[in-house]
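We close this part of the discussion by returning to an individual protein. In the encoding step, the backbone of a single protein was reduced to a row of integers, each denoting a local shape. The sequence in question and its structure tokens are set out directly beneath this paragraph.
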Amino acid sequence: MRFILSSLFLISAFLAKGQEAEVWSLSDCLSYARENSITVKQAMLGQNSAVVGLEQAEYQRYPNLTGAASYSFTNGQSIDPITSDYVNQQVNAANFSLNSQVTLYSGGQLKNQVAQNELLVAQNKLYVAEAQNDISLSIIEAYLQALYVKENIDVAEINIATSTRQLEQAKTRHRFGELTAQGVAEVESQLATNQYQLVTATNAFNQQVLSLKQLLELTPETIFKIDTTTNLLTNQLQIPELVRVYQTARQTMPQVEASELDMQISQLDLEIARGGYKPSLSANARLLTGQTSTRDIDFFDQLNGNFNQQVGLSLSIPIFDRKQTSSEVQRALIGIEQARLQQQAVDKELYRNIETTWQNATAALSEANAAESVRNASQTAFLMTQQQYDLGEANATDLLVSQNNYITAERQYLQAKYAGILYYALLQFYLGAEINI
């Protein structure tokens, strides 16, 4: 029994070790999301569907082949379906055939449909890349937000350690009559406030990590932790030129190229529609045989004797189709104009997003640098007040006011810092650069 319990303990310890959380970097999150996001998988299915459509369009150039077989029973006066003789009796007849048809010319419609489906395959590949970009942007934002909240936790822990030390000093001074009970109560209140802020920051961090985990489509049982180290400092970041970012993104963003392909697809719609005005020519071939009960000949001998072959051409010339082709042409022209407007809208939206990101990055980094100076000054003031408090030259109220000013300045700096890093990372994304924080 003792051996069994020991074995179970070792197995449990091994499994627990195997369940240790893997630390995910931003790069890990981006790589995983680009492959496993539901939106990306849906876009990939659209691409697969476009490939099937292309194969189908290509095979429309080839002859088809169908087989047919029929059996009939007739009683009374009728025409024998095999011999075409008038008979007045029961007739059992069987027919067998192979039929094939191929389009020789259709006004260029087959060629244009293949070309259009090739463009659709290329366009759907771009839709996959666009879906990957969209999920990447969401991952970057969620990851940096988690880092921001984590730094708030670090600040809260430092504040708790400081307030704990201050409370010990306050109680000592109170025992020696150097501080009133009110002063001790004020320090206790500050410690409780800092502890509450730690709880709030911890909950916010857990929620943010959960949001990131959900973006990654991870299962609930997956143990997930992120790498909270960062080596970016706002004063080291250089904002790229707006025009350079836009010109680069204009050449590399998949939604731009997809809108350009949409224009070409719409133009091929017009060519396909205009093909309806032109005649079409097709060739057909047929192998036919049959058997009838009116002839006293062996079944297989009849099949051999009745075997015949047919080859023909079929020409179709459109004369009046109740305005069907004309309507298709008009709709195609409207589609071209819609594609042109959509292309302009995509380009305009891209520039608006880049310009907004560029302005936000510029403002946030400027605010971060200014907030850092305020934070440093507030920290210096707090340390000086702390020294004065230790020497009995400042009261508890002065100390707490100075500490709260420093805490506020620290939070404002962190907020501006991570806003600047986020917008800088987005600009690097539009430039096609690797994002390394």
Summary: The two ends are 53 Å apart (CA to CA). The mean pLDDT is 88. Residues 109-175 form the longest helix (67 residues). The longest strand covers residues 91-105.
